[in-house]
Design goal:
The chain is of the alpha+beta class and 114 residues long. The protein is built from 3 helices and 4 strands, in the order H-E-E-E-H-E-H.
Length: 114
């Protein structure tokens, strides 16, 4: 679970990340990162109607992304706003494939300590 203080919730924050942030995309996830200058990272997770028309599937992928973030929380550098978008191809992927893809995107953007 991501603490409330570590979530992107306001539209203004999401817009800033999307307009000014660096990006890394693959077939499964799109990740945008913007330095925030805060002491902690803030995450925003999106799975829109393009991902699936079923709320059950959209919520399932969001839970999986939160689980990956929670497990890797100690490996992140601090002070970033991170927006993660799930692509439609993620519906057919196993958890391990989702984790590998997301961590690869984080590493490409240089926000992990590894």
């Amino acid at each position: 679970m991501i603490k409330k203080a570590n979530r992107l919730t306001r539209k203004k924050d999401f817009d800033a990340v999307w307009q000014k942030g660096r990006s890394s995309f693959d077939k499964i996830f799109g990740v945008k990162v913007l330095s925030s200058g805060l002491q902690a990272n803030r995450f925003g997770i999106m799975a829109g109607l393009k991902f699936s028309k079923k709320a059950v599937e959209r919520n399932k992928i969001k839970r999986r992304i939160r689980e990956i973030i929670g497990a890797e929380e100690n490996n992140f550098k601090k002070g970033f706003d991170i927006a993660i978008t799930a692509m439609p191809a993620a519906r057919q992927k196993k958890f391990s494939e989702l984790q590998e893809s997301l961590l690869k995107n984080f590493k490409r953007l240089g926000i992990t300590n590894n």
